[in-house]
TrEMBL record, chain B:
Residue ranges occupied by any ABC transmembrane type-1 domain in the UniProt entry: 82-274
Family (UniProt): Belongs to the binding-protein-dependent transport system permease family.
Cellular compartments annotated: Cell membrane
Transmembrane segments: 19-40, 81-105, 117-141, 153-173, 194-219, 253-274
Cited Pfam families: BPD_transp_1
A biological process term (GO) from this entry: transmembrane transport
CC terms in the record's Gene Ontology section: plasma membrane
Keywords: Cell membrane, Membrane, Transmembrane, Transmembrane helix, Transport
Superkingdom, taxonomy of origin: Bacteria
Record membrane topology: Multi-pass membrane protein
Organism: Rhizobium jaguaris
Name under which the protein is recorded: Carbohydrate ABC transporter permease
Length: 320, 289
């Protein structure tokens, strides 16, 4: 369709239809070579760094490979071992699922709540928005993970504040019962990006809907439930997918807080951390590849689930 | 009477509600920022005061943590780490700008065979976890002898591996009026001229957004830097900070806080200067900061 539009002005200048056809064919040929010329870096990169490695890792996942000797085919043994013989792997799955199950909904709830509050026309809106976004901005960094380690450490501020209330401070990061929860809190603290996406979504909701609802005598809660949430479902859906994909891949906070071990007692052994330890600590490249593929399948399954369920709870405006 | 009383009452109620809203927002903002303030404050406190005083404001400014932290570790100073981080960021930015804009123009404006399939493939790579491709990528870079150089962190960016930015730029180019290009084409411009002379200048906002996010992501990155850089002279700021956890442990909290604070400064400055663009970038595309 775009080619037709492109060739429209020259076509108007020509008289002979056969000449015009020739010209169009030449333009089409030109567009093909130009297209592939412009796309050459991406095509090379996609084959060399994304698609190629994806297929190679699928192959490696059926092998034993330590970088030094050639890969040795062992069939599905890596996968079998993951799920039946490797209790640390199952622990890493459990830790990661717990993390996602609590961090994602809490993060989105805070993001939505703050977006609702900041959707009002009040003074200093930009400043508030900036302040609430700052933790997300810095969030992925080693610095914040180090900070978190201290905040929940033996003499960190959390312990000190609790001591004021007479609760004797434990070290939250070094207790297997609480270490994962400090990381969940870290994720919840970083609700800035989804908040901004929610804010953009809230701005899209027509004011007339609320005015009509007020006329009908709807209270604030009813407005929220009957207008805001339904109108926002596409944005909720979008944020949910992004959050799921991102939090399954969390690495830095667990690595820093546990000192690269996943401890205490494997309580912060995130999936990606265990993959790193197996692949680049023990150089079990085939095993790590199998883990990568299981992660791909897990993320794919969750995304697919979200998409499939979306037709029951996500409302797009043009469907109305 | 009733009609008179109505509006007055609602107006008063609304004013009360806003006052409360500000209180809630300010308390919330303080809670959000407290850990950061505490860290910044602690970086100026003498060691003894850090954990004995909850007040983030230090009693007096003490820069000795910064002086000690800058050279602490095992010989290499933070000058090297900062320089290395800037080199990696600059390489990644240039790579992303060049390669992603080319690909985006092709996807947005040029009609070529298999465009639909290739575009779907590009979008598909958005969801591909890094951890699936990491082992083969490591093997490639190992074979090339690129381990412990910046090349594995920079070279892929010149091949448009960040589909996020291609997508962002495609959306942007689609908003540019087609007539400009058609006019240029009638004047005999070829695709490359149209791209460099017309499209690139017009898509400056998208390029700025790409620059900002590439900088922040690369600066904050840890996983790939941990994989590919393994001697101290090549360490980036992320890896330099990690040194504190291994080497010095409990004895030098002050200098650790000083350096973590410093490491956040570039990102924070970018945020201050480009706040509006950054927020727009997130709101329109869902880029994660």
């Amino acid at each position: 369709m775009q080619a037709a539009r492109h060739s429209a002005p020259p076509a108007a200048l020509t008289s002979s239809p056969s000449k015009e056809r020739q010209r169009r064919r030449r333009r089409q040929l030109g567009d093909n070579s130009w297209g592939y010329l412009f796309l050459a870096p991406w095509i090379i990169g996609m084959l060399l760094f994304l698609a190629g490695p994806t297929l190679v890792s699928l192959y490696l996942s059926f092998t034993n490979f330590n970088l030094l000797n050639p890969p040795k085919w062992i069939g599905a043994m890596n996968y079998v071992r993951l799920f039946t013989m490797d209790s640390r792997y199952l622990t890493s799955l459990r830790v990661t699922f717990t993390y996602v199950a609590f961090a994602v909904p809490l993060n989105l709830a805070f993001a939505l709540a703050l977006a609702m509050l900041l959707n009002a026309k009040i003074k200093g809106l930009g400043l508030y928005r900036a302040v609430y976004y700052v933790p997300s901005l810095l969030g992925g960094s080693v610095a914040i993970a180090i900070l978190w380690r201290q905040v929940f450490g033996p003499s960190g501020i959390v312990s000190q504040i609790l001591a004021v209330f007479g609760v004797q401070g434990a070290s939250w990061v070094s207790s297997p019962n609480s270490a994962l929860w400090t990381l969940i809190m870290l994720h919840v603290w970083q609700f800035g990006s989804p908040m901004i996406i929610f804010l953009a979504g809230l701005k899209q909701i027509p004011k007339e809907l609320y005015e009509a609802a007020v006329v009908d005598g709807a209270g604030r809660w009813q407005q929220f439930r009957m207008i805001t949430v339904p109108m926002l479902t596409p944005v909720i859906f979008f944020n949910l997918i992004l959050q799921i994909i991102n939090s399954f891949q969390a690495f830095t906070p667990a690595f820093i807080v546990s000192g690269g071990t996943g401890g205490p007692l494997d309580s912060t052994l995130f999936y990606t951390l265990y993959l790193y330890l197996q692949g680049f600590g023990n150089f079990r490249m085939g095993y790590a590849s199998a883990m990568g593929w299981v992660l791909l399948i897990i993320i794919g399954a969750f995304t697919a689930l979200a998409f499939l369920s979306s037709k029951y709870w996500v409302h797009y405006e043009d469907e109305r | 009477m009733a009609s008179l009383a109505g509006p007055i009452k609602t107006r008063r109620r609304r004013r009360d509600w806003r006052w409360l809203l500000h209180v809630v927002l300010i308390v919330g903002a303080f809670l959000m920022l407290y850990p950061l303030l505490w860290m910044i404050g602690s970086s100026f406190k003498p060691e003894g005061e850090i954990f004995s005083n909850l007040n983030p404001i230090p009693t007096r400014l003490d820069f000795s943590n910064y002086i000690k932290g800058w050279t602490l570790g095992t010989g290499t100073s933070f000058s090297t780490f900062f320089l290395n981080s800037f080199i990696v960021c600059l390489g990644a930015i240039v790579g992303n700008l060049l390669s992603c804009s080319l690909a985006a123009y092709a996807f947005a404006r040029i009609n070529f065979h298999f465009k639909g399939i290739l575009f779907a493939l590009m979008i598909g790579t958005l969801m591909l976890p890094f951890h699936v491709t990491v082992v083969p990528q490591y093997i490639i870079f190992n074979r090339l002898g690129w381990i412990n150089t910046f090349l594995p962190l920079i070279v892929p960016k010149f091949f448009a591996v960040d589909a996020f930015f291609i997508f962002l730029m495609v959306q942007f180019i689609r908003g540019i009026p087609l007539e400009l290009e058609q006019a240029a084409m009638v004047d005999g411009c070829n695709r490359f001229q149209i791209f460099t002379l017309i499209i690139l200048p017009l898509m400056m906002p998208a390029l700025v957004t790409t620059t900002i996010f590439t900088f922040i992501w690369t600066w904050n990155d840890f996983f790939s830097q941990l994989l590919y850089l393994n001697t101290e002279k090549n360490y980036t700021v992320s890896l330099g900070l990690r040194q504190f956890l291994d080497a010095s442990g409990q004895s030098s909290w002050g200098s650790m806080f000083a350096m973590t604070t410093l490491s956040l400064v570039p990102v924070f400055l970018v945020f201050l200067f480009f706040q509006k663009r950054l927020v727009e970038g997130i709101a329109t595309t869902g880029l994660k900061g």
